[in-house]
Amino acid sequence: MKHTYASDCHNHSCCSPDGDHSVPAMLARAKELGLYAWTLTDHCECQKFETRYRKRVRQAWEEMAGVEAGGLRFCRGIELGQPMEDLDAAQEALSGRDYDFVIGSLHNLRDKPDFYYMDAANMDPEALHALLDAYWDEILNMIAWGGFDSLGHLTYPLRYIQGERGVPVDMSRHAEKLDQVLAALVQAEKALEVNTSGLRQKLGETMPNLPILKRYHALGGRLVTLGSDAHCTEDLGKGIDQGMDLLKEAGFREFTIYEKRQPVMLPLE
Known about the structure:
By secondary structure, the protein is α/β, with parallel strands linked by helices. The chain has helices at residues 23-33, 49-65, 87-94, 125-145, 156-164, 175-188, 210-218, 240-250, and strands at 7-8, 37-45, 73-81, 101-105, 150-151, 191-195, 224-227, 254-259, 262-267. Helix 4 runs parallel beside helix 6 (175-188) and helix 7 crosses helix 8 (240-250).
């Protein structure tokens, strides 16, 4: 890693349904890369907690509890997907577990599939904009709830709408809603994640991108986390150095990791 304090705070082991490698394998890779800090954040899709995730959350916690990190700064995390769909599930996932870090994410809207599965190429443009408006509104509801530390991959829908399906989105139509989201994060003292997975995908940019990061900084945002969203050892740490450089370009001088649910500020060095 190019940066002394390079840290990856969003990634998944095989405790997640879509993760490929074990916790020990991910740990070994984090050490090999020379990461300053590594936070493992396996999935908990709250609307599927009863059917698919209760056992996985327990397994992930038990495996993280047994990690011998050596010289690596290791933090225990979780990614709560769609918490507003089942707040009881979100609370149960967190209860009795002393997580260092909680990501709040939105992969799909209620009663709709993950954006991964949506055929945006055949959607009416106005319906697509309405879908994004509903997405921002749900993000605002999540921030008002406040049970997380960092908002994961804010522009996640664009990964599939623009990146995979090739449908351009006029984001100027969403500038007001985005400002509301960013201002709400600042007011609630929640972090914004720079998710670097888009750099290695067709989207070709971080989620969110540089203009949104600049706007967040202009609105007073200072808490930012970095995550590769790796689901395998090969992707762990990818894009973190570029993400740190991007934050500098956006005006930031520090970034954030979380320990015991409290922000720790580190220099972008």
